[in-house]
Amino acid sequence: MGSNVIDADVVARRLLALSEALTNLERPECRDAKQLRADAVLRAAVERWIQVAIEVCVDVAHHVIATEGWTPPATGRAAFMTLAGHGRLDQALAQRLGGAVGLRNLLVHDYADIDLDRLASIVGTDFDDLREFARTAAQWIET
């Protein structure tokens, strides 16, 4: 069984990393496919910031699940569904975050086939779910 006390320091440090990654991704050049094609360092940075942002959410989900003593999920996608199943996360948000895990997997495992137009579009529009998760997770550690 878990200790039933979420480690606020663990969660806060990860949420800070999430905030930093999302702040970096707000730079205009991060959502410009032409610049991503022309600048390999920028592309690598964008891919890494996205990976970190999503991985933070997965890590926090796993931390909460372990703390509560719930059955460990086999995947990051399943971790969000576990949180939803226990009332810690909205079901629709959990499903969308599962999709984000798919993007993370694409960046990590299929890096040679990244569609830079799609990646630039995602950077420009698709991080509200990660921000919503961060707001929710921050409430779990408020005292």
What topology emerges from the helices and strands here?
Elements: H1 8-25, H2 33-38, H3 40-68, H4 76-85, H5 91-109, H6 116-125, H7 128-141
Features:
143 residues; mainly alpha; Four Helix Bundle (Hemerythrin (Met), subunit A)
SSE run: HHHHHHH
CATH class: Mainly Alpha
**Class inferred from helices and paired strands:** mainly alpha
The CATH architecture term is: Up-down Bundle
Main β-sheet description:
none
Mass-distribution shape: elongated
| Beta strand % | under 5%
Which stretches are low in confidence, meaning pLDDT under 50 for 5 or more residues running? none
CATH superfamily: bsu32300-like
The number of domains is 1
Give the termini distance in whole angstroms.
22 Å
Oligomer: single chain
Q: In CATH terms, what is the fold-level topology?
A: Four Helix Bundle (Hemerythrin (Met), subunit A)
How many helices? 7
Proportion of helical residues: over 70%
Can you offer a commentary on this structure?
This protein has 143 residues and is mostly helical. The protein has a single domain, classed as bsu32300-like (Four Helix Bundle (Hemerythrin (Met), subunit A)). It contains 7 helices and no strands. It is elongated, with a radius of gyration of 16 Å. It starts with 7 loop residues before the first helix and ends with a helix.
Summarize the structure.
The protein has 143 residues and is mainly α. It is built from 7 helices and no strands. The radius of gyration is 16 Å and the shape is elongated.
